[in-house]
Amino acid sequence: MLSRSRWLLVAAALALAACGTGGGGGVLSVAFTSPTLSPGVPLSGVVNLGVSASGATQVEFWIDGVLKHTDSSAPFSFSWDTTTSPNGPVSVVARASGGGGTGQATITPQVLNKYLVVRDDSSWGANPDEAILTANQIPFDVIASSALATTDLSPYRMVVLPGDQPSSYYTNVNASLTALTNYVSAGHVLLYVMAAAENEPAGWTAPGGAVRSALDLATSNVVLATGHLLVRGVSSPFSGNYASHGHFTTVPAGAVLVTGVADATKPTLITYQVGTGLVIASGQPLEWGYNNGEPTGQILQNALAVGGNLETFRFARLTPRATQQRSSGR
């Protein structure tokens, strides 16, 4: 039998092996050389991640638990497009290996990238998308739909296509579907509010292939994905004037059906991946709901606050402001 001292030696050897010291190697010294982080100064755009790791033959760069890049030659670096990460704190880990040893370093920078609102007119008499972003201290730009085809979308974390726009708006958006699809595929987020008081296009299509029905007004919707962050704070069923203008007749594979008219046969709010990005598509008049204190206004707040990170709910919540109801109810 092994003596107590021998057991202790064995236990210590096993512990050292677990730390990467077996096989003649050791714990590698790993450190980030860039970026330089300053308190209160968030990162944005493309950021160079530089790492020093003496004795390493490769370094893996992990962003929020996902392997993004492996560099096999010093100096080790990775050009990180922060617009593909949600606004807020992001875990960045460099894992080095070589010579039988391993080591890692971690930083948690704050990321803050702009949103882009594409708007030609107010949404049911107001601009609640911009109001919500301002209240949550999310920077944003606003452009007209006529500029969509010539605008570089890559610097933006999310593109917002609000509801209730003129018919020319939807013509311009349809002409830019390929560019919008490529934007989402690269890891970004698109919110498309597919409802209007009038001027609703036929065959309304979102990037990634979701198709909304012709006008099919419903005063009540139900929550299909209980606990989903897009419906946080929304009871089921919920009503509105109207709760939805149409449902999705074509739903991309793997989509999450978040709400529906009565059941999953008529989904009215869906999310789905396109490439490494996310589309949030709604057949509900979200801005109307916000303007008039209806539950769909909470969905709009949730969608803008989530910013594509459907596992984290970071931003403040507002109470939808009540305004005078309109006879059209749209």
Features:
disordered C terminus, elongated, 18% helix, four-stranded antiparallel sheet, 330 residues, disordered N terminus, Immunoglobulin-like, alpha+beta, 31% strand, Rossmann fold
Helix content: 10-25%
Largest sheet: 9 strands, mixed
Look up the CATH topology of the largest domain: Rossmann fold
Mean pLDDT: 87
What is the CATH first-level class name of the largest domain?
Alpha Beta
Count every beta strand, where a strand is a DSSP E run of 2 or more residues.
20
Structural class, from helix and strand content? Answer: alpha+beta
Helix count from the secondary structure assignment: 6
Q: Strand content of the residues, in percent?
A: 25-35%
Report on this structure.
A hairpin with a 2-residue loop joins strand 19 (267-274) and strand 20 (277-282). It is elongated, with a radius of gyration of 24 Å. It folds into 2 domains: 25-110, Immunoglobulin-like (Sandwich), CATH 2.60.40; 114-306, Rossmann fold (3-Layer(aba) Sandwich). The longest helix is centred in the N-terminal third of the chain and has 15 residues, at 4-18. It has 6 helices and 20 strands. By secondary structure, it is α+β, with helices and mostly antiparallel strands. The strands form 5 sheets. The chain has a 9-stranded mixed β-sheet. It has a 4-stranded antiparallel β-sheet with strand order 4-3-7-8, with no helix packed on it. A 3-stranded antiparallel β-sheet has the order 1-2-5, with no helix packed on it. It has helices spanning 4-18, 128-135, 167-175, 177-185, 286-291, 295-306; strands spanning 30-34, 46-53, 58-63, 66-71, 76-81, 88-89, 92-98, 101-107, 110-111, 115-118, 140-143, 158-161, 189-193, 211-212, 218-223, 238-244, 248-250, 256-260, 267-274, 277-282. 18% of the residues lie in helices and 31% in strands.
